[in-house]
Each structure stands twice: as structure tokens, then as C-alpha cells.
Amino acid sequence: MKKVIVTDHPLIQHKLTLMRDKNTGSKDFRELLTEITMLMGYEITRNIQLEEVEIETPVTNTKSKIISGKKLGIVPILRAGLGMVDGLLNLVPAAKVGHVGLYRDPETLKPVEYYSKFPQDIEEREMIIVDPMLATGGSAVAAIDVLKQKGAVSIKLVNLVAAPEGIEEVHKYHPDVEIYVAAIDERLNDHGYIVPGLGDAGDRLFGTK
């Protein structure tokens, strides 16, 4: 599949197995999600531009590299996406954080935006949308729509677990967006849940039903 990067590092797969287990409680689930997101962050940020600067070490003067180019923006899809923010901020503390809130209209079943707030310089940043689950793809497509309408030109989508149907839906409407996942699962069931998946990520994060 084009523009889909599976970050299948052994540590990520190990932690994902623990998250899938229905006996894992909210505290451990939150910590594991932060840890996996941080590990995925190495791949997500692999192509960040660098520039060379001159510094003085305790031994001598030398030239070394620092991050330059586009700054990052992190956009969690409320509410489950909030669980992935700290993992990326641990890596890139200077990143700005926006938010987008979506709910599903009970009649049309289409995502409806109810809240959004982004950094002012969104068009100058590489925006990273985070949400643990990419199921039908409806929320992801809607979130990307909102970001593009606000001026974003560089967008990545980061999910823990994705269904093939969700990946196809995102690339149907936004073929330019790279998708980073820890695992591509088998399918969606009749209720739109990912199989085998890990249940409702928001409920498991925050201890709700």
C-alpha cells in the first residue's frame, strides 16, 4: 500500500499486545500508548530537516547538526487522540498542539466538527494528526479536511491500529497524506470495530463505558 508506514519494531509490537489484552487497565493502557507513540515518533520524524551549526564542546570547536525547516504541530482527534500527545511532545517539546473534535451524526452517520483550534502558523508546520484507531476512516478524512481548509499543506496521520477499510478511505480522499501505524488488522466488524483491535480506545484510556 502506498504511503502507509508500519512501524513494527519489537518493542512496539510487545507493548501493543499488552494494550490489546482486555485485562489491561486504564493506567497501564495510557502509559503504554504514550510509550508506543514515542517509539513511533522516531520513524515519524525521520525526515525532519537539519542544518549545520558551529558549537564549542569542552574539548574543541566543531560543526554539528540541529533541527531546522518546518516545525511540528500535533493534532489529536478528540478524545482518544489525547492519549498520544505526550509521547510526541516527549520527543519534540517545542511542537505546538491543536485540537479537533468530531462526533457522528446519528442520522447521516457522517462526522461533524464541533471544535477546532490550531496554531496560527499552521501552513508553515508539518501537522501530525493522532488517533489510536483508524477504523472506517470517516473521522480521519474529516480531520484532514478541516486542517486543509485552515491552510495546512503538510499532513501526516498517525494511528496505533488500522483497518484496511480505513486506510483505503483516507487515501481515496487524501492520497497525499502518509499514514503511520503500528499494525494493520484484519477487518471491520458489523459495528465498525476493528478486528481483532483493542476495543474502544477512548473508553479504555479514560475508564468510561
Description:
The longest helix is centred in the N-terminal third of the chain and has 19 residues, at 26-44. The protein is built from six helices and 13 strands. The chain is 31% helix and 33% strand. Strand 10, helix 5 (164-173) and strand 11 form a beta-alpha-beta unit. The mean pLDDT is 92.
Q: Compute the separation of the termini in Å.
A: 35 Å
Largest sheet: 9 strands, mixed
Give the overall average pLDDT.
92
Percent in strands: 25-35%
Please tally the helical runs, counting DSSP H or I stretches of 4 or more residues: 6
Q: Pairing-aware structural class of the strands and helices?
A: alpha/beta
Total strands? 13
Overall geometry comes to globular
Q: Any idea what the radius of gyration is?
A: 18 Å
The percentage helix is 25-40%
Query: How are helices and strands ordered from N to C?
Result: EHHEEEHEEEEEHEHEEEH
Low-pLDDT runs: none
Task: Produce a short descriptive summary.
By secondary structure, the chain is α/β, with parallel strands linked by helices.
Which structural traits does this protein have?
alpha/beta, two-stranded antiparallel ribbon, nine-stranded mixed β-sheet
Topology:
Elements: E1 4-6, H1 10-20, H2 26-44, E2 50-56, E3 61-67, E4 71-78, H3 85-91, E5 96-97, E6 99-104, E7 111-117, E8 125-130, E9 133-134, H4 138-149, E10 154-162, H5 164-173, E11 178-184, E12 187-188, E13 194-195, H6 201-206
Parallel strand pairs: 1-11, 4-5, 4-6, 4-8, 8-10, 9-10, 10-11
Antiparallel strand pairs: 2-3, 6-7, 12-13
Helix pairs in contact: 1-2, 2-3
